[in-house]
Each structure stands twice: as C-alpha cells, then as structure tokens.
Design a protein that fits this description.
Structural class: mainly alpha
Order of helices and strands: HHHHHHHHHHHHHHHHH
Subcellular location: Membrane
Pfam family, one: SLC35F
Main location: membrane
Largest sheet: none
Number of helices: 17
Protein name: Solute carrier family 35 member
Membrane topology: Multi-pass membrane protein
Helix content: over 70%
Number of strands: 0
Shape: globular
Length: about 425
C-alpha cells in the first residue's frame, strides 16, 4: 500500500521549477491571502509583469534566507527562537488533543458504544464543513475543480492512508494489550525517518538521531512503569493479530505524516485540510457503513453519549487543523516525537477522572522526552526543520504560507530592507 504514495513524492521532490508550475497551478504575487501569499495566476493568462514579480520574489527569498542563515549562532541558538517554543507548545496541545479523544473513546466503550469508524467520520465531516468553504472562496470553483483533476488522486491517497491508520490502530486494541500496541507505534517514527531520508532528501545529524532515541527511551521508561504496575491491559484475545494490526496502523501513520508534510510545504493548509476532509468522509463513510453497522444496534444512545461524540469530534478536528503548522515549522519526525508525551497526559487525566495513581517513573519519562526534543534541535540551523530540501535551496517550489521558511525569508527581506519595498508588487 505504500508504493502509490511514495512515487508521487519522489517525482515532485526532484522536479524543476518549471515542472512545479503544473503541480502548483501557477504560483504568484506577494499581495495574496494570509496562508498563501504567493498565489499566482495561471501562467497562460498571466501578464508580462508577473514574471518580474516572480523574479523579484525569488530574489527577496534568497536574500532573506542568506541573511537568516548567516547570523552568528551558538549551539543553542535555535532553542532561543520563538519558533522552537511555538513547536513545543503546539506539540503539547496536540498530545492533549489525542489524550482527550482517547478519554472520550473510553467513556463511549464503557457504555457499549464502540463505533470507531463512525467517530472518525464525524471529524472528517467537520473538517469539510470548516475548510471546504474557505478553499472555494480562496480558489474559486474553477480552480478547485482543476486541482481535483490534476491532484485529486494524490489527495485521495493521503486520505486513504490517514483513514486506514486510524482504523487499524483502533482495531489493534481489540486483540492486543496497550503495552504491545504502544511499543509498535514506535514504528511510525522509524517509517518517517526512513521515508524522509530516501524520498524527501532529508539528512539527519547524529544529534537529531540521538534526540529521537532519547525520546523513545523516555517512552520506554513510561511503558516499563505501566508494565510494573500492571496497567498495560493484561493479555489480549489474539496478541499476534493485534500486534500485526498495530504495526500496519503505525506504518500508515508514518507514510501519512511524510506525505502530508510534503503537501503542506507546497500547497495552502486550507486546501490540504479540505481535501483530507472531503475524501476522508467518502472513504470512512464506506467503512463505517460496512464495519460499524452491527455495533450501532447494541450501542447506547442518549444525551451523554452525544456529548462525548461531540467532544471527540471537536478535539480531533482541532488536532488535524494544527498538525500542518508543526509539519511546516518542524517536520514529520518532530510531530511524531511530540506525540510521545500523549501517554503522560493520559495518566494525568486518568488520576483525575478514573482514579488512577501516578507511578514515580512517569515524571522521569516526561523529562526524557522533552530533553530529547531539545537535543533534536541542538546545533541546528536558525530555520530549524522549516527549510525543506525538496523545495530547492531558495525554497522556490514551496508556498509562502504560515510557518514556512519561505515566509520567514520574505519577512526578513522586507524587515531588513534587503530588497526594494515594492519588489514583490511589480
């Protein structure tokens, strides 16, 4: 299942600027909207002045990047930037969102309302309601239809991988215990690192690998404490089947994260989220109709269950809406590493809601994971992971959206007066 996704990523990652026009449907002017300030008119309809605007923009980005990267820096320079702390803050927010969705799911299962496919369907529906109108307003119906024609199959694959990652991960917990499923989820990080290295041209430094391993070590401490206290769920009904489902779900998640990082670096976030919602509704709707039909018959339905479903839907929608920011400002690897703290927050919720006790090893695990994230960025570029290698040295093939290196370079060029004020408005 991985091959259809990997191929387009490799093709576009090595494409030239001219070829990218076909993928980006033209890319243009600095007067654009907040998330896509470099949105061009189609090349065949563009006036002669748009070429000057494009060249001026490229010069501004190059000057901005050069100035940012030439700053004298210490090994801890990136740790003092606003971007680093924003990534940490958003990452912990995402971990809390995952914890909340798990909590709501536990409430639902406790009253025999076990409908995993339908729960996720609600999230995709909400994403569609929020982001599709925004996309249609920004692009217009004609351009939106053209995107479906040219890139619809890529968005379909992205949605399919995401839906199946959710489905098989939830399914795994029906057969194996929590400890096994969580340990196998480390495989998602391995998938991200391997795919990013081979297909996106990402090159990891030894300290970055060390940071990832330190985070995994922290997670290992947390899981060990679960095992010692017997809170890992005990034995499963079919451990082998459950472990295989968890492994498959983690693989889907890893591929999805890499593919989505590639997408949001080249296209507006609202566009990616809208198509993820539209195709997610179609794919997950079919699965819910097939696999959740019997579960509906024996499920409990009342106002409390409805509240839990709404809470699950809102938290998951917020999660999906924030993920692109971490993928732009950081990377798929940073995203997965941040989510390792979700188990720590789950314990905090458990002590308050379910009356569980906190083992003394939990704070140690949390500190190790946070330290691992810090080590990951030690001696890194002032731009962190926001500068994507597959977009070219001057990020020419990328969108200048919120959180991107291209956006930072343009802002720096204007702020420092490295280019004429009207360079992008010709």
């Amino acid at each position: 299942m991985a091959s259809p996704t990997v191929t387009p990523v490799k093709e576009v990652a090595v494409s030239s600027s001219a070829a990218d026009t076909k993928t980006n449907y033209g890319s243009t002017s600095m007067t654009a909207l907040p998330d896509d300030p470099v949105q061009q008119a189609d090349s065949k309809d563009a006036p002669r002045s748009s070429l000057s605007s494009s060249e001026a923009e490229a010069a501004a980005v190059a000057a901005g990047l050069s100035h940012l990267e030439s700053r004298s820096k210490h090994w801890y320079s990136y740790l003092l930037t606003r971007d680093f702390w924003i990534i940490i803050a958003i990452g912990q927010t995402l971990a809390l969102c995952i914890t909340a969705t798990n909590t709501f799911t536990s409430f639902l299962v406790s009253v025999n309302t076990n409908i995993p496919a339908f729960q996720t369907l609600l999230n995709y529906a909400l994403l569609t309601l929020i982001w599709l109108p925004v996309t249609l307003r920004r692009h217009g119906l004609r351009k939106w239809a053209r995107i479906i024609w040219k890139d619809g199959w890529r968005y379909f694959i992205l949605s399919f991988l995401d839906v199946e990652g959710n489905y098989f991960t939830v399914l795994a917990y029906n057969y194996t215990n929590i400890l096994s499923a969580q340990l196998i989820n480390f495989w998602a990080i391995v998938c991200v690192v391997v795919l990013s290295f081979f297909f996106l041209g990402v090159r990891y430094r030894l300290l970055q690998i060390g940071g990832i391993l330190l985070c995994c070590g922290g997670m290992g401490v947390l899981l060990a404490s679960d095992h010692l206290t017997g809170s890992n769920g005990g034995g499963g009904s079919d451990m082998l089947k459950g472990d295989l489902f968890a492994l498959l779900g983690a693989t889907f998640y890893g591929i999805t994260n890499v593919f989505e990082e590639w997408f949001v670096s080249k296209r507006p976030m609202y566009e990616v989220l809208s198509f993820l919602g539209v195709f997610g509704v179609c794919i997950n709707g079919v699965q819910a109709a097939i696999f959740d039909r019997k579960s509906f018959e024996g499920a409990t339905w009342n106002g409390q269950v409805a509240g839990w479903l709404v809470g699950y839907m809102v938290c998951l929608c917020l999660f999906y809406s924030l993920v692109p920011l971490v993928l732009r400002m950081g990377s798929a690897a940073v995203f997965d590493v941040n989510l390792l703290t979700a188990n720590f927050w789950s314990v905090i919720i458990g002590t308050r809601v379910f009356g569980l006790s906190v083992h003394w090893m939990y704070p140690i695990a949390f500190v190790l994971i946070i330290c691992g994230q810090i080590v990951y960025f030690v001696t890194g570029s002032i731009l962190g992971d926001s500068k994507k290698p597959w977009l070219g040295e001057d990020q020419r093939d990328g969108v200048a959206g919120v959180g991107t290196a291209k956006r930072k370079a343009l802002n720096e060029a204007k702020k420092k007066g490295l280019v004429p004020v009207n360079a992008g408005e010709v």
